[in-house]
Amino acid sequence: MFEYTGAVHIHSVYSDGTGKIEDIAKAAFDSDLDFILMSDHNTLKPKEDGYEKWLNGVMVLIGYEVNDMSNRNHYLTFGIDEVIGTYRELGNGELGCKLSAKEYVKEIKDKGGIGFLAHPDEERSHLPEHPSYPWIEETDDYTGIEIWNHMSEWIEGMDEGNKIDRFLHPLRSVIAPPAKTLKRWDDAAMKRHVTGIGGVDAHALKQNVLGFFEVEIFAYKVLFKSIRTHVLLDAEISKNNQAAFEKDKAGILEALRKGKCFVANFNNGNARGFRFYAEFRGITCNMGDTISANGENVILRALVPKECEIRLIHNGNLFSESKGMNAAWDVNLPGIYRVECWTASRGWIFSNHIRII
Ligand SMILES: [Zn+2]
Ligand SMILES: [Zn+2]
Are residues 262 and 285 in the same domain? Predict the structure, then answer.
């Protein structure tokens, strides 16, 4: 399989981000990323303006982040050529979709798009100027969940006392995905396939807090050293080849749809080379796959690029834990399995599920 690393959930000057798309692409290239998934609020204007292409050495894929009239239920949408629903001003300059979240999630799915619940369990009590935007709607039509969001975690633990430290060290305070979100993900994935992705969520917070640190702290280059989503593809991407762009884009979106991907915090080490796979009757199965084992033994294997704590999670519960650069487990219980890698008490790599039935 071919591995490609990307950053997902990025805002540009087309909504409340601070960078132009060409500069964001350049920062991504300099950070050794292969692709970026842009998600400006409620708009596909950057796509209409021709930014979805190979740009400065990276693949720029353009989707959008939709929110409802209560500015909740943020949904990261990709692989679709229209902004679903009609929109109205929320009174603060932002827009809200007049459809309910249940309706837009369904419509995006029906039109062939994929979508991810963004920062679903956000809680922010310390900074009234930055309210939380949790997911509060019941729906089963989404593709996946953004299990780890840099900006959410960074703001969530911020208070008047540690504000300056957080601005000076924007990567250090990002420790692990919220336990609540991992539980939400495992619970949903026990019923059907649900992909987990990671997002950086670059927003323009600069005007609101400590203005003089703004540019350096929230440079996209800094954020690109944080949460990344790695995809595993069957076919190699044709670098800088615009003619093959649509085919390669479809490959990346399909990997995200099927869960052939993992999430990692680059700040804890480059996760390139991580693998979680299963062997059953001589066949190798990967994340996102379902194995019909009917009680027979399946071997699960994890390979990690550096020594860390490797945890196997079965149906949301810790099944086994070991230290090293690889691990293997002989399992025969049905359910969903995923791997977490931790280093120095920090979450590093979070795989997608392998399902055994
Ligand atoms: Zn959002
Ligand atoms: Zn966002």
Answer: no
Domain boundary among 244, 267, 290: 267
- Cα–Cα distance measured from residue 163 to residue 173, given in angstroms and rounded to the nearest whole number: 11
Q: Does 58 score more than 90 pLDDT?
A: yes
- Structure-model confidence comparison of residues 204 and 143, the more confident one: 143
Name the residue range of residue 145's domain: 2-267
Cβ distance 115 to 78 under 8 Å?
yes
Task: Look over the chain and give the mean of its residue pLDDT values, rounded to a whole number.
Answer: 93
Task: State the distance from the centre of ligand 1 to the C-alpha of 283, rounded, in angstroms.
Answer: 40
Are residues 341 and 255 part of one domain?
Answer: no
Q: Are residues 255 and 291 in the same domain?
A: no
Q: Sorting pLDDT into bands at 50, 70 and 90, what band is 162?
A: confident
By mean pLDDT, which of 28-32, 66-70, 219-223, 275-279 is the weakest? Answer: 219-223
Token readout for 162 is 């540690």
- pTM as predicted: 0.95
Interval between CA 203 and ligand 2 midpoint (Å): 7
DSSP string, 200-247: --B---TTTS-GGGHHHHT-HHHHTTSEEEEEEESS---TT-GGGHHH
159 and 238 housed in the same domain? yes
Query: Hey, what's the torsion of the CAs at 95, 17, 116, 335, to 10 degrees?
Result: -150
Over residues 297-323, mean pLDDT: 98
* 238 Cα to the center of ligand 2, angstroms: 29
- Whether 59 and 83 map to the same domain: the answer is yes
CATH of the domain at 69: 3.20.20.140
Which ligand is in closest contact with the Cα of 202? 2
Measure 20 CA to ligand 1 centroid, in angstroms.
19
Contact 163, 154 (CB under 8 A): no
**Average pLDDT of the residues in 22-34:** 96
Q: Please count the structural domains in the chain.
A: 2
Kindly give the distance from the C-alpha atom of residue 90 to the centroid of ligand 1, in angstroms, as a whole number. Answer: 15
